[in-house]
Design goal:
Elements: E1 7-13, E2 21-26, E3 30-35, H1 41-58, H2 63-66, E4 77-81, E5 86-89, H3 102-106, H4 108-119, H5 136-147, E6 152-163, H6 167-175, E7 180-183, E8 186-189, E9 201-211, H7 219-231, E10 235-240, E11 243-248, E12 285-289, H8 291-294, E13 316-317, E14 322-323, H9 324-333, H10 347-355, E15 361-369, E16 374-382, H11 386-396, H12 400-403, E17 407-411, H13 422-425, E18 428-429, E19 432-433, H14 434-438, H15 442-450, H16 456-478, H17 495-509, E20 515-519, H18 530-542, E21 546-550, H19 554-559, E22 562-567, E23 576-581, H20 583-586, H21 592-597, E24 616-622, E25 630-635, E26 639-644, H22 650-665, E27 678-680, E28 687-691, H23 704-707, H24 711-719, H25 722-727, E29 751-756, E30 759-765, H26 776-779, H27 788-792, H28 796-802, H29 807-818, H30 835-847, E31 855-860, H31 868-883, E32 887-891, H32 895-899, E33 903-908, E34 917-922, H33 924-929, H34 934-944, E35 966-972, E36 980-985, E37 989-993, H35 1000-1018, H36 1022-1028, E38 1038-1040, E39 1045-1048, H37 1061-1064, H38 1067-1078, H39 1095-1107, E40 1114-1122, H40 1132-1145, ...
């Protein structure tokens, strides 16, 4: 790592209040960021470092994933260097919903769910007996017993409550012969199945049979049941009417016969409808009304209000509505009265009151006496009871909030609080059930899991799961949370517990190289736990991570390696670095933090402790959660502090018990209090206030002045000033939230907020008011030389001095200063105020109130976010509240605050079950003397050792443990890896190499990258993870030293037609922002600027423009009525006369018609040709003297003419304006403000409406439409269906055509070829047609006489075809239409993809489509020269900087020639990889593990050096770079090489060699070592290859001339038979365009369409074209080498011919594992069963039925020469060739497979385990097996060396030469110079890529190219490697090639 990478450098940080901060901090250290509240700590740590670190890493993910991740904008900072991927650990990152538990938060529950689903044994919930399988016959008998004679649907379950449209399933079922399905409970025919909603859950069963079970004839039932069980995988559904039940052959109770659902992980999830208890819905508790919640005081009577449902005024109940007089009548008959205390009412009476009296009715009456109506009614009604009424209201969903207070929580009886269904709770592993494990404390879980009794199969499934569970529990124990149970609800956790759970997850991730940012981790922690917390932070640091904590805690500051002190004050007074360095250095600074570290900040204890006012608030018998019947007494009139370790029960006592009880007492809506007996002393309270640190406002319009209500008196004061009275201003004039006095341009905000989408938003001062918020006239009113804007800009201290003589204003300001908020400006937006500041502002509002009663103030950890100096101010405010006669109760750990309390209640001694008791109460001195109290110990230590951090000495030299320097993988088992142990250096370039299929990618990508990415993604929010896809944990024992991983793979650049270089690199996204924020809209037609403006702005323009025509210009201000783009009415004079009355009524007197005045009080005369009619708004001078009058007229004109305003200068021009930004010539205007989405051709609002943003359209081609131009148009010129529709059949289109022809005198009886060009244009395209044609259609038949008239336009015959194609949804009809259509550039957007409005917006005189046509280098140059107006330039400067950075990176990887609009589908493989690599380079991350999959694929050897330089640059930044690669040049420059092998597949998966390239080169048996030593020889140099010469009678070569596809410029290609031809050249030079996009289509007989001039094939001969790639030969275990090579057919026939098979009647189908006749039914012929492990790697376990042999037992009994078929499939190809040598059909196939080097493969090896090279050779082998018959082949291979090691190339070269010598034409597109060296002929394209390529620069043999000075490839060919080329080739060759290319272009 370089020295720069050893630290994080921040330059110019301006986020929030940071004042351009520059600071360096060490990496791999514990750094504390501190400072007073609001100083900018979080702005630096979270909003700058964390946000930028996470943004950079998330940008490496897919664009799809990123769109769901919310705000990923770049923070406002100039530069951040040395930054790693960042993870935040804060209070908010832990979900607190009722459905979250400790187990779900840590994901231990998720792993246990998988364990029980995959290894559990189902038991009957009732009988508790193990479930057993049963036979199909028992199912048949049960159906006969229960449903004989009934109509029954027998169904097989296919989909069980899963999301998806499931189209493929319906199609598959139809193919299998099924007719009906049952979809979500409804039986329908398959062809009538509706399109299911994709994101809704569905259940689908296929109907196997419909029948009436007959006990006398059960044959049909048996057959149907067997079929249903096979299709339904063991389950059959019986549907009778609307009822359905599932009968299982796998999970049935032998005792009661009950079935249980399949064991799936979701069955064990209480958050899934499949697993949740149906009674409590997975909550574990029920909310229901209870007597306890209903009775407020058992000593009161009903009349006194003992029932909580009593009306506030008394005299009646609310639930149900009943008067006391009615209740008295009921009581007479049911043993109760209203004046007996509740506790004395009999059980009978209570039951009647609560549960009602049944059907008995009682007399009741009601009366009303309103303004209009009066009366009374008497009736008899039932009494339902109070509890019953509440239950009915809850079920109906009525008044739910009001009902909350009457509901209590009871444990669900159905699930006993476990939350799970009974079936899930009954599943066991050994004797353990899941609810039992979830109820254990974490510290006991390990022992319980270790004692599980499991079978071998269960143990194999459980192995990785238990390892993961053990790892997670270990870290919970390390942070001191062993007492928690996994089923503990998250909403019951304390803040400290929640954050430590999050911290434990990060410790468990085991990541290295990460930047962890923690927000005050000491919050909620008792002093006892600080040491444990600091130990966890140091563990994170020592693992090789950078740990940044925003913290005030003194102990944490002293333990840090580095401290950054932000200040000196808060808000605008902060944002600077006031001290930085080691804690000892910061302690020397004259700052608040320095004083704390020196022990100078001490909160003095009060001289005398208050004893209270004689009353107390006493909680009796509190036992909610872990409280153990606590009796707590809080003396009123004191400052009482509740203390104890985390989890001891403090918040439960105060927040969950006392607070809701008091709220209910005060008549407020509140949840049910925690369980307790009673609370005494409530009668002494008049009010209760809970003060927290929640924001005081959500918008920028809220500020301290509005929140403290001081702004009201200030506005009153300004309204009373003489100047305000003179102008008639009231107080509303001085509000920036009300129209009238505020600036309307910014609507009183003072600034324009400019969103830059991906970058931090920019706030630019309002240009109209200069940021003052108010109009200039409002600011003219001043108090003591201060305007209202000046007052809002004052700090509280300054405002106090200004308004000292005004008591109403002075009081709140004094309090703000007293609580330490004097630095806040009155107008500071609430959104920028910290939590501590918000809390103190709330205290100000309460302190400013007059004491009217006794108030209880509750504060939960109020010191959160406060510096120690701020704590002193907070304590002062709390003491003042107590001095005012109130009571303050604080839950707190801060020892300084505890020392200032009057009374302390200390809970403990431990957390969880070990707490919940009161240890000691009394003054702080009493607590300090208590021997067993941890709080007391901490107070004693505070008094005795103020200069030390509780016994910890601050480290002086940074971290004591060096971070790991290597990445260690132990026991890697992914795919074919044999549990290998690997160690490779960190911050180095490592190449993982080896034969194709040896396990390289399994190690690098499937293990290292997958685990690195999984660990990091797991640290993100649950919301983010669902879109990022947390990969399965790969199988390994341990990985240490692993950082977050980024993969640069082969297939990461999309090929969609909407994907371009600019969109893929996100350059287009930033350009969209630039054009949206800095663009000038213009009219698409006239190019006129579209500049909206209010009347004031338009007035300024008129005055300015008029001044150019004289100093004192006069004229008319006009409202345009007709003319320009306003159409004239049919009768202009009549219309003007009609509107005249309205105009004159509004006070207007004149019109201006073509410049002449016409008065409205007389007749209006108009001539025939009128150009403009305007309403004269005013005759005025266009000077600044008339500004006010002119502005008023502009406003009137704009209102009349929809924004248009005209100014006619007398004897001068007419000037046009618009207040709405419309073109004054045509009226075009944008729909709204420009946004980035308007410039996206992938968004509806931005895409061209005609082509949909594709840039091209499919249009009817006249040449294709007209089949024979020598025939008549209506008689054969257009054939087929189109001809019948358009020109025949006497239908609508033919009649319209004939009428158009008649109207234009076109003779349709002439051949179409005789038409004139003008006539053809009219008929085909409608050019010159009228607007409308009226056609009369007459039809007469025997019974009908029809006369019809229709009107239509004429778009032409082609126009009709285009319209049909646009509207049709019929694929068949569309295919017919497309035969006469062709793709062409869209005429509307001219191929530029955008809609007219956005397409015309300019930045720097350039439209966005013009910008996108530039190449990367040209775009960078243009941006560097771009100059914009001042504020705009500042606003978009970050966007331009980001664009230039991204363009520079593309140029850096050699893509400067690529145009931004180029489609990614046209990129070569090398270009696509380099586009992806540029994004990784641009992230500038440190500590990342980059994994690249064969990055040299598709790269010319010349480009490999450039690529390697980029990889080394990544390494030098401090990253670990791992490359899966075979290229020798890259390996030689690597730091470390891992050679995996020795062979492929099962012969690989081991570590062969490891070390530096020089060390690996010395290995004796390694193929990689031999390659590096230059010992691998191909072709003629291969000692084992025997060249038998060329095949006799070579054919005439194929010849393709004048190829112009893509960037090719007239290239000729000749491909001879019997030879190997290679096409080479730089990436992007046109190789694929020449071969794949030109030669292959020509060979297949496609038309040229301009791609080539001529193609010459084989005259009169047949030719076979084969394109061979490395794609897999199959995706499932059903595909094996034996099936692909065609060997299975002779093997099946061989076994079918054996005597034993004939005797048993077994034919060839019985010996196919893909046929139901012979395959094992349990595994369906796969040989193994897939066990899905969810977030762990899935397991393929051997099938227990067939022992992995795939076949039924009777098939395996058939043997040939002592071997059954399964044993032959287990042989290698070499072994099988020897065994079957006497079988010609099989032997010939096996010999070919041996010849291509595949003798080591097993015949039955699954296709998914084959490498790309093995798949490629299998395809070539099938080509070698092809019979002769005189047919020759053209075999084309695109980069066949991809994924192949040098040892693999030997076999490939031999195969290619054999094919060529047989007489086939072999054509390679290749960069591998070793493989090019075996070619007989080479064709080289170049000299560069893109537009600089496309020429043939050399051809000949490899030796000739090596000697050709114009060849770029020549110096790397084997014949030129006697002296290997240098990393950089001589410039003269490049120059010569470029010169040649330039000449060719000219």
């Amino acid at each position: 790592m370089t020295s720069a990478a050893s630290r994080i450098r921040i330059r110019g940080a301006r986020q929030n209040n940071l004042a351009g901060v520059d600071v360096d901090l060490p990496r791999n250290a514990l750094v504390a960021v501190t400072g007073v509240s609001g100083s900018g700590k979080s702005s630096l740590a979270f909003d700058t470092l964390y946000r930028e670190g996470q943004r950079r890493f998330l940008e490496t993910l897919s664009a799809y994933a990123r769109q769901f991740l919310g705000d990923m904008r770049k923070p406002d900072v100039d530069a951040v260097e040395g930054l790693s991927p960042a993870i935040a650990v804060d209070q908010r990152s832990v979900p607190r919903g009722s459905r979250s538990t400790v187990g779900t938060l840590t994901e231990i529950t998720d792993h246990l769910r998988v364990l029980f689903a995959r290894a559990g044994v189902a038991h009957c919930p009732g009988c508790e007996q193990p479930m057993q399988s049963r036979t199909p016959e028992s199912v048949v008998q049960e159906i006969l017993r229960d449903h004989a004679g009934e109509k029954v649907h027998l169904c097989a379950p296919m989909i069980r409550d899963r999301k998806g449209a499931h189209k493929a399933l319906f199609g598959d079922l139809a193919k299998r012969g099924f007719v009906r399905v049952r979809v979500d409970g409804e039986v329908i025919r398959i062809e009538e199945a509706p399109e299911l909603e994709r994101y809704k859950r569905h259940s689908i069963e296929v109907v196997v049979d419909r029948l009436k079970p007959d006990p006398e004839d059960p044959g049909r039932l048996r057959e149907s049941v067997e079929q249903a069980i096979e299709v339904g995988e063991g389950d059959v559904m019986v549907v009778v009417g609307d009822e359905a039940r599932i009968l299982s052959t796998q999970r049935t109770c032998p005792g009661c016969g009950e079935d249980v659902p399949p064991l799936e992980p979701r069955l064990f999830s209480f958050n899934s409808p499949h697993g949740a208890c149906p009674t409590c819905d997975g909550i574990g508790v029920l909310r229901r009304p209870s007597e306890a919640a209903l009775i407020t005081d058992r000593t009161l009577t009903i009349r006194e209000g003992c029932l909580a449902v009593t009306r506030a005024k008394g005299g009646a109940l609310n639930f149900p509505k009943a008067s006391f007089s009615f209740l008295e009548r009921i009581g007479q008959d049911h043993d109760f009265d209203l004046d007996t205390p509740w506790k004395s009412i009999s059980d009978t009476g209570r039951k009647a009151i609560l549960r009602g009296t049944g059907d008995e009715r009682f007399a009741d009456k009601a009366s009303w006496n309103g303004a209009k109506f009066a009366g009374e009614v008497k009736w008899k009604r039932k009494w339902t009871g109070v509890l019953t009424a509440i239950e009915e209201a809850c079920q109906a969903g009525k008044r739910t909030k009001q009902l909350e207070r009457y509901l209590s929580l009871d444990t669900c009886v159905e699930c006993d609080g476990s939350r799970l269904r009974r079936a899930a709770g009954a599943v066991r592993i050994g004797h353990q059930r899941l609810p039992m494990l979830l109820g254990l404390p974490v510290e006991d879980l390990g022992q319980a899991l270790a004692s599980l009794e499991m079978t071998t199969r269960q143990a194999r499934i459980a192995r990785d799961l238990l390892i993961e569970i053990e790892r997670r529990t270990e870290f919970l124990l390390r942070v001191g949370l062993g007492y928690l149970t996994l089923d503990r609800a998250a909403d019951t956790l304390s803040g400290g517990e929640a954050q430590r759970i999050r911290l434990a997850a990060q410790l468990g991730a085991g990541l290295q190289g990460v930047l962890y940012v923690l927000d005050e981790p000491s919050i909620g922690l008792h002093a006892r736990d600080h040491g444990r917390l600091l130990g966890a932070l140091e563990d994170l640091r020592d693992a090789g991570n950078s740990v940044i904590v925003v913290e005030h805690d003194e102990a944490t500051l002293r333990a840090a390696d580095w401290v950054i002190d932000v200040g000196p004050g808060a808000g605008s007074a902060g944002g600077h670095i006031v001290a930085v360095g080691h804690p000892a250095d910061v302690a020397k600074a004259d700052t608040p933090t320095g004083r704390v570290l020196r022990g100078e900040v001490v909160l003095p204890a009060p001289k005398t402790r208050r004893t209270g006012n004689g009353h107390a608030l006493i909680v009796r018998g509190a036992d909610a959660f872990n409280l153990q019947s606590v009796d707590a007494s809080i003396p009123l009139g004191t400052l009482t502090v509740i203390t104890g370790v985390s989890g001891s029960g403090k918040s439960t006592l105060i927040e969950r018990t006392l607070r809701p009880a008091i709220e209910r007492h005060l008549g407020r809506e509140a949840p049910e209090p925690g369980a307790h007996d009673r609370i005494e002393g409530l009668e002494h309270l008049d009010e209760m206030v809970a003060i927290n640190a929640a924001p005081i406002g959500r918008t920028t319009r809220s500020n301290p002045a509005t929140y403290t209500k001081v702004l009201g008196p200030i506005r009153d004061l300004f309204a009373s000033l003489p100047e305000a009275k003179l102008r008639g201003y009231d107080k509303s004039r001085f509000s920036f939230n009300i129209e009238g006095g505020r600036c309307e341009n910014c609507q009183g905000s003072g600034a324009r907020f400019i969103e830059l989408q991906f970058l931090a938003a920019v706030t630019v001062p309002c240009e109209e008011c200069g940021g003052h918020r108010f109009q200039a006239e409002t600011l003219d009113v001043r108090f003591k030389e201060h305007s209202i804007a000046d007052v809002l800009a004052c700090t509280a201290e300054e405002a106090l001095a200004l308004f000292g003589d005004h008591p109403k204003i002075k009081r709140p300001l004094e309090l703000m200063v007293d609580v330490g908020l004097g630095y806040l400006t009155l107008g500071q937006p609430s959104t920028t105020i910290s939590g501590g500041e918000a809390q103190r502002l709330k205290l100000v509002t309460h302190l400013s109130k007059k004491a009217t009663g006794h108030t209880l103030y509750l504060l939960d950890e109020p010191t959160t976010g406060l510096h120690q100096e701020d704590v002193g101010r907070l304590v002062g405010a709390l003491q003042r509240l107590v001095d005012m006669g109130h009571t303050v109760v604080v839950v707190e750990h801060n020892l300084e605050l505890i020392r200032t309390g009057d009374h302390v209640i200390d809970l403990g001694p431990e957390g969880g079950a070990g707490g919940g008791r009161i240890l000691v109460t009394g003054t702080p001195e009493v607590i300090a003397k208590h021997k067993t109290s941890y709080t007391g110990a901490a107070l004693r230590e505070l008094d005795g050792k103020r200069t030390e951090a509780r016994g910890r000495k601050a480290p002086k030299n940074g971290p004591g443990v060096a971070p790991p320097t290597s990445l260690r993988i132990t026991g890697a088992r992914a795919h074919n890896l044999k549990g290998i142990d690997v160690e490779l250096p960190r911050n180095a370039l490592t190449v993982v190499t080896g034969p194709s299929g040896s396990g390289k990618s399994s190690l690098a990508l499937d293990t290292i990258h997958t685990e690195g990415r999984r660990r990091f993604v797991e640290s993100l929010s649950t919301y983010a993870r669902q879109f990022l896809g947390v990969g399965d944990r790969p199988p390994f024992e341990k990985i240490e030293g692993l950082g977050p991983s980024v993969a640069v793979e082969a297939a990461t650049v999309g090929s969609h037609p909407r994907s371009t270089v600019a969109t893929t690199t996100e350059i287009h996204d930033h350009l969209r922002v630039l054009w949206a924020r800095a663009g000038q809209p213009k009219c698409p037609k006239h190019g006129q600027d579209l500049q909206p403006g209010d009347p004031s702005q338009v007035t300024k323009r008129i005055i300015k423009d008029a001044a150019e025509h004289g100093a004192d210009t006069k004229g008319w201000l006009l409202a345009p009525i007709y003319g320009g783009h306003a159409p004239f009415p049919a009768d202009l004079k009549a219309e003007l006369e009609r509107r005249k009355e309205a105009w004159t009524g509004a006070g207007f007197a004149r019109l201006l018609i073509d410049g002449k005045e016409v008065r409205l009080d007389g007749p209006i005369q108009v001539s025939e040709a009128v150009a403009n009619v305007d309403l004269v708004v005013d005759r005025i001078g266009f000077t600044s003297k008339s500004r006010a009058r002119l502005a008023e007229g502009v406003e009137q004109a704009s209102a009349i003419s929809h924004g248009r305003v005209s100014a006619m200068i007398k004897d001068g021009p007419r000037l046009e304006y618009s207040t709405r930004g419309a073109c004054t010539e045509c009226g075009f205007q944008l729909d709204g403000d420009l946004e980035p989405r308007h410039f996206s051709f992938n968004a509806h609002v931005g895409a061209c409406p005609d082509c949909g943003g594709l840039g091209d359209v499919v249009r009817c081609d006249p040449e294709k439409l007209i089949d024979d131009a020598d025939l008549k148009l209506c008689d054969g010129a257009i054939e087929g269906k189109l001809g019948r529709y358009l020109t025949k059949g006497k239908g609508f289109y033919e009649m319209l055509l004939r009428h158009v022809a008649k109207a234009h005198r076109i003779d349709l009886e002439r051949p179409f070829s005789k038409f004139t060009d003008k006539q053809k244009d009219l008929v085909l395209h409608g050019i010159g047609a009228k607007d409308n044609y009226e056609v009369h259609l007459d039809k007469t038949s025997t019974n009908v006489e029809l006369h019809e008239v229709f009107r239509s336009d004429w778009p032409g015959l082609c126009g009709h075809v285009d319209a049909w194609h646009q509207k049709t949804d019929d694929a068949e009809w569309a295919a017919i239409l497309e035969k006469v259509m062709r793709k062409q550039v869209c005429g509307t957007c001219e191929g530029e993809r955008l809609a007219p409005g956005p397409r015309s917006v300019v930045v720097g005189r350039k439209r966005l489509p013009q910008m996108l046509k530039l190449n990367v280098e040209e775009a960078g140059d243009w941006l560097s020269k771009l100059k914009l107006k001042g504020s705009t330039q500042d606003a978009v400067a970050p966007v331009i900087a980001e664009l230039r950075s991204r363009l520079r990176l593309l140029a850096q990887v050699g893509l400067g020639y690529v145009t931004l609009e180029r489609g990614t589908a046209t990129l070569s493989g090398g270009e696509a990889r380099r586009v992806r690599l540029s994004a990784s380079l641009g992230s500038e991350l440190v500590g990342v593990c980059y994994v690249l999959d064969e990055p040299t694929v598709g790269l010319h050897p010349r480009d490999v050096d450039r690529l390697t330089d980029a990889l080394l640059e990544l390494r030098d930044r401090g990253n670990t770079v791992i490359v899966v690669e075979h290229d020798a040049a890259l390996m030689r420059r690597a730091d470390h090489v891992l050679d995996i092998g020795p062979g492929a597949g099962e012969l690989g998966g081991r570590l062969v060699a490891s070390g530096t390239p020089a060390e690996v080169m010395k290995h004796k048996t390694s193929g990689t070592a031999a390659h590096l030593r230059g010992e691998i020889r191909l072709g003629k140099d291969d000692p084992e290859f025997k060249d038998h010469g060329h095949a006799a009678g070579p054919l005439t070569p194929l010849r393709l001339t004048g190829v112009h596809t893509q960037n090719l410029r007239g290239v000729d290609l000749e491909v001879p038979f019997g030879k190997v031809t290679g096409v080479c050249g730089p990436s992007g030079s046109g190789k694929s365009s020449l071969v794949l996009d030109s030669l292959v289509p020509a060979l297949r007989g496609e038309p040229s369409n301009g791609r080539w001039e001529r193609f010459r094939g084989i005259p009169g001969g047949s030719l076979r074209t084969v394109v061979v790639d490395a794609a897999p030969i199959g995706r499932t275990p059903h595909s094996v080498p034996a099936t692909y090579a065609g060997l299975m057919q002779p093997l099946r026939e061989l076994f079918a011919r054996t005597p034993e098979a004939r005797m048993r009647g077994l034919g060839p189908p019985h010996f196919s594992f893909n046929s139901t006749k012979g395959r094992c039914p349990a595994c369906e012929g796969r040989g193994s069963i897939l066990v899905e492990m969810q977030f762990l790697a899935d397991l393929w376990l051997p099938c227990e039925e067939c022992d992995g042999l795939r076949y039924r037992p009777e098939v395996l009994e058939i043997r040939f020469r002592g071997r059954n078929l399964a044993e032959i499939l287990a042989m290698t190809i070499d072994e099988a060739a020897a065994f079957l040598s006497a079988q010609p059909a099989a032997s010939s196939i096996l010999k070919v497979l041996q010849a291509v080097g595949l003798g080591y493969l097993r015949l039955g090896q699954g296709a998914p385990t084959l490498s790309g090279g093995e798949a490629q050779r299998l395809k070539l082998a099938s080509e070698l097996q092809r019979a002769g018959g005189g047919q020759r082949s053209v075999i084309i291979l695109d980069e066949p060396s991809t994924g192949l090691a040098a040892t693999d190339l030997v076999h490939l070269a031999r195969t290619l030469l054999r094919l060529a010598r047989r007489g086939d034409a072999v054509l390679l597109i290749e960069h591998n110079t070793e493989l090019l060296g075996i070619c007989d002929h080479l064709i080289e394209l170049g000299p560069e890529g893109g537009e600089a390529g496309g020429l043939q620069i050399a051809q000949g043999t490899p030796a000739e190219l090596a000697a050709n000075p114009d060849s770029i490839t020549g110096p790397w060919l084997p014949s030129a490697k006697a002296h290997p080329p240098q990393a950089k080739k001589p410039a003269r060759k490049k120059a010569a090639s470029r010169k040649k290319a330039k000449g060719a272009r000219s």
